[in-house]
Sequence to fold (64 residues):
Amino acid sequence: MLEDRPGNVVVLSGNNRKKAEYITRSVNAGLNVLADKPMIILQKTFLNLSRLSYSGREGISLTI
Fold:
């Protein structure tokens, strides 16, 4: 999915088990992300997503 790049937005919803990983990979691939509430259980996962949302990547939007 990340290699094909048919657009510039990825929408993530559903299973929360790998959602934080998918959000991170998508933003790092330069895609805008719209995700429903990821179930954050581990503090480390929350901190990683928090840093990612304020990373200042030019033109990239992360909306949860």
